[in-house]
Structure formats: structure tokens, C-alpha cells
């Protein structure tokens, strides 16, 4: 039985939470970017780009708070839009205060009035933002928003920053005071990035781990756009899972929304300690999967490979999948592999032991004495081939760092790439390093100048 940790409950002990809500395309994500001071929320000039509730850290006047960006809130929505609206409603009930964004150039709509009724029932402090106020004329139109009955409308231009300081002052007044620094937790849960092609089941896995629908899931590929951070209690511990957008075949050919989403996914991998690559077990290992693996290796992150949708894999498919793993995943044979079905939760309990093994390998340190004793035996058994009458030797080795394990080899000359691969393989056989890339850096001895 998995138990979910509500982000609000966790965040309330650390920093207060502000939910940004409003109907679709009123500029919520643009305003969020203005508040946090960086372009992080995906923005595009059409409704429905933000689909999940997405958390960002923000500070104003020396006070920290969490901003939750939500999908457009339409009480009459159906289908996927209905679930997006439900996410916004969850965010409003979770938050310590709500920033309700209205398009001042359009005025009060029936949807706005319906949202106000829901906000009143939630009983949270509400700050009313009259967005798209770019000049004095529009500022006069914003005064009409007094009729919503939520108090003073704060005119702001999310695009140009006009009035954002006064709005943030009002937000701080609505939020509760955070606890003293001494009460805050040090460290934090392990950070896990869920990555893979679009529609392989990343959001389904996160929802199953959390034991509730935290993120919107739809059979249409590309439902997740922003990386979504969720704290989840699973396997007796708390983990920070980062659900990411699917990395597409060619990022440069993607639409604006997809292009920025793919950049966010790369950033999410950099933020994580271990990446869980989901591969559709019923489909062939693709070029995109291999590209994602290379991104994870380049970032130096631990790796677990999860073959999802195992309920769709028959005996014949298993035979061909084994051949594909031998052929295409030979470079990451060290990564733990598990077979799961995220939709039903089958075997997702195997994820925690795989994560533990990968993180243990990622943080393994070998003493200098043990490393050089190993290198001495290895060179004696299998010396470097002679090249052009010369034979490079390993003089000394040391592990410079962990996460990922990084070794510096002092040599009498440059080692061949094939001998480097042999060294890495033997290091894994001797010391483990399960689930982690290994970095080997050579320091050839300089020739003495005559």
C-alpha cells in the first residue's frame, strides 16, 4: 500500500504555497515566469498549454514561497480539459493563498464568476490579478473587476512587468509567514527523473506510485509539457519524482511548446540523481531511446531502465526484445532493468531496489590503495598493446570524485579507446558500479624537453 505525501503538507512546513488559477489563456504561465524571474513555465499563445499543476520556487522581498502553475480552469470542461480543471481545483484547495488571474481586456466572463464561487468555497485568501493591463486606458477597464466581489483588482502586465511589484506585495500580505530558518529541513529526498519517449507511461507510473492522480494522463502523446515535481512516499521512504515531457525524435523540428518542453527535460535530468528511462516493452527500442540514454550518460546520472506495458508483451515479443537489448543497449549493460505495467501497478515495487542499487553504484568510492593494487594486477594480466614500438603503461590511478565515479589515470602515454573500455569493464567486475556511468580521465606523462 503506497501512501502519497501531499506537496502542500510538506511545503507548508517549509514555505507557503501560492496557486495561480484562472480560465484558459489569460496569461497565467507568463505571470508565473514574471513572479519567479525566469522563463520556466511553458508559454504559448493558445489555450491549454499548461496541463498539470507545476511547482516553482520564488522569492520576493527576502521571503520564499512556492508558486503552483495550473491548467486553465473551465467548470464546464469535458474530457482531458475536465481533468485539467480538476488539477486546478486541487491546487486551490492545497494552497495557502490563491492568485486569481483575469484578462482585463475581456472583462468578467461567466467562467470567471463560476471560478469565484469555487474559490469562495475553498475559503483561502484570494489576490485578484487583472492581467494584460499595458496602458492607462486598460487600467480603467480593470476597475470593473471590483464587481467579482474579491476586493481590489491589481492591474498587471505579465508580458511587460507593469505593476508586478505591487501585485507581489499583495501576494506576500495574503501568504502566512514562513517558519524561522532553524526549523527548516536540511538535505532532502532522493531526486528521480522519469524520462522516455512521449506516451510510454511516465505520468501513469507517477500516479500509481503516488496512489492518486497527481498528473493528467491521456492516450494522446505529449500530454505532459512541464517537468512536474512530486514528493511520494513509496517503499517506506520519501522520494522526489520529476515527471518530464517525452523527448521527441528531432527537437529542432518540434513546435515551440515541444521544443521548450524538451529543453526542460534535459534540465530535469541534470537536477536528478538517477533517471528512470521508461521504454514501451511492446515496441522496438528506438533511436529516441538511445538518444535519451546518451543524454543521461553525458549528464553523469545513474540509470534504471524500466520496460513498461509488460502486459502487452507476448512470448514472441520477449524473444525479439532480448535480441534488441543485446544489440542496442550494450553500452548500458550496467543499468538495472525491470519489467513493469504502470497502468495496473504490476511489479512497480521492484523500482525501489533498482533505484537503491543504482544510487549505491553512483556513490561508490574505491580507496587509492585498493585501486592501484587492482590496476597492478590488471596490467600484469593484460598489458596495453604495443603501438608503433611503444607501450603505454598506467603509472598510478586515483578516484577523484563520486556521483558519477570519476577516475584519473596517470600514464606514460595515451591509452587506446579499446583499452579504456576494457579497463571500465574490469572496474565494474571488481567493484560493482551498478547503474552508473564511469568517467575515466587520462593524464599522459609529458615528454621531457631536451
How does this structure look, described?
By secondary structure, the chain is of the alpha/beta class. It folds into three domains: 3-182, P-loop containing nucleotide triphosphate hydrolases (Rossmann fold), CATH 3.40.50.300; 190-360, P-loop containing nucleotide triphosphate hydrolases (Rossmann fold, 3-Layer(aba) Sandwich); 368-444, GMP Synthetase, Chain A, domain 3 (2-Layer Sandwich), CATH 3.30.300. 34% of the residues lie in helices and 21% in strands. It contains 13 helices and 16 strands. The protein has helices at residues 7-12, 28-36, 80-94, 110-122, 136-142, 164-174, 202-210, 256-271, 287-299, 315-328, 351-362, 368-381, 417-431, and strands spanning 3-4, 17-21, 54-60, 63-69, 97-103, 126-131, 153-155, 190-196, 228-234, 237-243, 274-280, 302-308, 337-339, 394-401, 406-411, 439-444. It has a seven-stranded mixed β-sheet, with helices on both faces. The chain has a six-stranded mixed β-sheet with strand order 3-4-2-5-6-7, with helices on both faces. The termini are far apart.
Radius of gyration from the alpha-carbon trace, in angstroms:
26 Å
Uncertain ranges: 1-14, 45-52, 181-186, 220-225, 249-260
The CATH topology name of the largest domain reads: Rossmann fold
Helix content: 25-40%
Percent of residues in beta strands? 15-25%
What is the architecture of the largest domain at the second tier of CATH?
3-Layer(aba) Sandwich
By CATH reckoning, the class of the largest domain would read: Alpha Beta
Largest sheet: 7 strands, mixed
Summarize the helix and strand pattern as letters.
EHEHEEHEHEHEHEHEEHEHEHEHHEEHE
Number of helices: 13
Structural class: alpha/beta
Cα(first) to Cα(last) distance is 73 Å
Average per-residue pLDDT, rounded, comes to: 81
Strand order in the largest sheet = 1-9-10-8-11-12-13
Amino acid at each position: 500500500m503506497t501512501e502519497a505525501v501531499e506537496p502542500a503538507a510538506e511545503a507548508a512546513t517549509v514555505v507557503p504555497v501560492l496557486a495561480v488559477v484562472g480560465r484558459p489563456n489569460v496569461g497565467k504561465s507568463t505571470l508565473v515566469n514574471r513572479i519567479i524571474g525566469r522563463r520556466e513555465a511553458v508559454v504559448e499563445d493558445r489555450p491549454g498549454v499548461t496541463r498539470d499543476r507545476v511547482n516553482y520556487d520564488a522569492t520576493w522581498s527576502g521571503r520564499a514561497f512556492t508558486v503552483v502553475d495550473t491548467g486553465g480552469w473551465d467548470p464546464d470542461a469535458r474530457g482531458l480539459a475536465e481533468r485539467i480543471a480538476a488539477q486546478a481545483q486541487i491546487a486551490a484547495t492545497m494552497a495557502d493563498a490563491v492568485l486569481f488571474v483575469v484578462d482585463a481586456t475581456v472583462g468578467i466572463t461567466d467562467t470567471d464568476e463560476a471560478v469565484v464561487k469555487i474559490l469562495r468555497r475553498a475559503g483561502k485568501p484570494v489576490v485578484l490579478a487583472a492581467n494584460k493591463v499595458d496602458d492607462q486606458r486598460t487600467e480603467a477597464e480593470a476597475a470593473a473587476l471590483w464587481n467579482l466581489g474579491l476586493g481590489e483588482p491589481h492591474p498587471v502586465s505579465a508580458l511587460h512587468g507593469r505593476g508586478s511589484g505591487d501585485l507581489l506585495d499583495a501576494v506576500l500580505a495574503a501568504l502566512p509567514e514562513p517558519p524561522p530558518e532553524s526549523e527548516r529541513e536540511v538535505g532532502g529526498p532522493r531526486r528521480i527523473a522519469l524520462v522516455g519517449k512521449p506516451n510510454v507511461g511516465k505520468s501513469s507510473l507517477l500516479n500509481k506510485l503516488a496512489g492518486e492522480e497527481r498528473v493528467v494522463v491521456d492516450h494522446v502523446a505529449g500530454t505532459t509539457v512541464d517537468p512536474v515535481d512530486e514528493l511520494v512516499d513509496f517503499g517506506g521512504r520519501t522520494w522526489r519524482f520529476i515527471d518530464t515531457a517525452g523527448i521527441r525524435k528531432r527537437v529542432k523540428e518540434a513546435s515551440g511548446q515541444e521544443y521548450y518542453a524538451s529543453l526542460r527535460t534535459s534540465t530535469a535530468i541534470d537536477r536528478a540523481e538517477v533517471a528512470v528511462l521508461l521504454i514501451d516493452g511492446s515496441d522496438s527500442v528506438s533511436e529516441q531511446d538511445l538518444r535519451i540514454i546518451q543524454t543521461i550518460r553525458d549528464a553523469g546520472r545513474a540509470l534504471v531502465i524500466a520496460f513498461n506495458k509488460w502486459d502487452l508483451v507476448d512470448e514472441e515479443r520477449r524473444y525479439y526484445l532480448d535480441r534488441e537489448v543485446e544489440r542496442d543497449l550494450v553500452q548500458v549493460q550496467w543499468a538495472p532493468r525491470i519489467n513493469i505495467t504502470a497502468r495496473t501497478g504490476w511489479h512497480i515495487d521492484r523500482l525501489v531496489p533498482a533505484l537503491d542499487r543504482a544510487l549505491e553504484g553512483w556513490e561508490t568510492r574505491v580507496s587509492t590503495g585498493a585501486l592501484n593494487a587492482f590496476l597492478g594486477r590488471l596490467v600484469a594480466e593484460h598489458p596495453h598493446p604495443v603501438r608503433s614500438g611503444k607501450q603505454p603503461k598506467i603509472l598510478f590511478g586515483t578516484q577523484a570524485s563520486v556521483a558519477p565515479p570519476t577516475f584519473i589515470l596517470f600514464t606514460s602515454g595515451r591509452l587506446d579507446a579499446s583499452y579504456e573500455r576494457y579497463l571500465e569493464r574490469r572496474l565494474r567486475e571488481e567493484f560493482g558500479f551498478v547503474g552508473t556511468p564511469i568517467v575515466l580521465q587520462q593524464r599522459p606523462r609529458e615528454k621531457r624537453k631536451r
